[in-house]
Amino acid sequence: MCVMCSTLNVLVYLLVISHFVVEIACRVEFTNVKCNSLDKEFSDFEYCYLKSVNRSYKYLSLKVNLFQVPITKFSTKLGLYKRFSGYKPFLYNFTVNGCNFLKRPKSFPVVSYFYEIFKDFSNMNHSCPYDHDLIVDKLTIEQINNRFSKTLTFPEGDYLIELHFLAYGINRAVVKVYFTLS
To answer: Given this model, what pLDDT does residue 142 score?
Structure first.
């Protein structure tokens, strides 16, 4: 009888506690994307947009037409910014040799963290040379949500991921992805 009472007490206790516990889940939402070609003779964006299919399904798509192929040497400068009275650097700001990274992605764990966000939605999945247009097709918010709220948690707020693409040491294009983490 006493064992039964203690089991019942534990169950009641767990039921009461579970009523007051609220699952905390972060949610990422795209707010804007801006693509700018700095050298129109080298490359240009055919399209760069966010599409909202419904309230819960948004995706990002972009296509860069390359006019001087093959590209055998490129690097990417990535900056993560958080909005504090304007966008200020937050946590990450680095430049990586793209050809070296794509040959040995495990050698660059921080870069891999960001690359994993879009690699399954892109044709940028092989090492140099690049002799074709570059596409990111229907990158969903779920992919970013998983990275920024489950893999490595970030504080709530407005963020910007700014990517500069350099080919042969010259800045050729800038992509800015704005999102909110709530």
So the answer is: 81
